[in-house]
Amino acid sequence: MTDARTPHDAPLAPDELADRLTQVFALVGPLYRRVHRKVEQAAPLEGLSAGVRAVLDLLREHGPMTVPQMGRAQALSRQFVQRMVNEAAAQGLVEAIPNPAHQRSSLIRLTDAGGAAITAVLARERALLRQVGGDLSRADVDACTKVLARMLALFDDVDVN
Amino acid sequence: MTDARTPHDAPLAPDELADRLTQVFALVGPLYRRVHRKVEQAAPLEGLSAGVRAVLDLLREHGPMTVPQMGRAQALSRQFVQRMVNEAAAQGLVEAIPNPAHQRSSLIRLTDAGGAAITAVLARERALLRQVGGDLSRADVDACTKVLARMLALFDDVDVN
DNA sequence: GGAAAAATGACAACTTGGTTGTCATGAATG
DNA sequence: CATTCATGACAACCAAGTTGTCATTTTTCC
């Protein structure tokens, strides 16, 4: 994170912080919806729904996992993840391999096709994001990540199912 | 925004920027979903759906507007906004007043009840956000806002309908 | 001023992300 | 061993949001 400290780096008082974070969240909503829509519009091209995309992305970072593990990792219901995994499997993007640690719950792994697909999607997204020009510095982005992570942590305890 | 410049404030190269923004977006998704769920769980208490909440919030900041204006402001389909407005009107949170500039498309305005409702909701949300403790500085939050706004601008051209 | 084009309201069908419920079975735990 | 917990499979359901269509009103433009 940022360890070189900036001038107005004094931690904010909770009240003002809450105020500012409300503003941040007012941005998150529209951003999420717009990107979601844009991704959906492009989905037919790739053949990936947002859910499948998320599964592939997870497997790409974390390596093979079981369905319930993925659900917990993303705070999604296990049933939903299962559906997405089934869908991905039907498209040959993902496959089940025996789980040494559990006979019944097999590990899900990216196939070559799946790896290629998620790589392609990420590349397209990166290309889009490269158009966010301007004067954003590393410090800006780091701070953004930090703030969002902090907010996310607040909602960690929301248990699903 | 930040005008006092920090050490590592050099604008990032587009490639690295895209990389970092991908990470940012990986946070936005889960955050949005989690908050959405949490808000939904609390919704019965307030009787406000997320859509109605968004409409009230918009009217609170911008004052009376027509339905299509709201749709454009949030990049939502006019039909969807209309549905939310109807729902809000049915709950007495919102009312139509004559539009001097347009005979057919009336202005939508918060009622007293609507104002009270959105104020209460915002207060509750602020109370939650006040728990995001830690060392977040004004600079951090400003940077976050800046980054998100920049990303949002990229998707402004996504036309709806 | 009048004709064509765009904007609006109303209503309906549909898609998708996501949850909840249930049941049978296999795994962990006392 | 008995019980409890985790998993897969399947289904019903909900909410957010879009798309389509039609009639009417407004705007634009010749």
Automatic annotation (TrEMBL), chains A, B:
<feature type="domain" description="HTH marR-type">
    <location>
        <begin position="14"/>
        <end position="153"/>
    </location>
</feature>
<dbReference type="InterPro" id="IPR000835">
    <property type="entry name" value="HTH_MarR-typ"/>
</dbReference>
<dbReference type="GO" id="GO:0003700">
    <property type="term" value="F:DNA-binding transcription factor activity"/>
</dbReference>
<dbReference type="InterPro" id="IPR036390">
    <property type="entry name" value="WH_DNA-bd_sf"/>
</dbReference>
<dbReference type="GO" id="GO:0006950">
    <property type="term" value="P:response to stress"/>
</dbReference>
<dbReference type="InterPro" id="IPR036388">
    <property type="entry name" value="WH-like_DNA-bd_sf"/>
</dbReference>
<dbReference type="InterPro" id="IPR039422">
    <property type="entry name" value="MarR/SlyA-like"/>
</dbReference>
<dbReference type="Pfam" id="PF12802">
    <property type="entry name" value="MarR_2"/>
</dbReference>
<protein>
    <submittedName>
        <fullName>MarR family transcriptional regulator</fullName>
    </submittedName>
</protein>
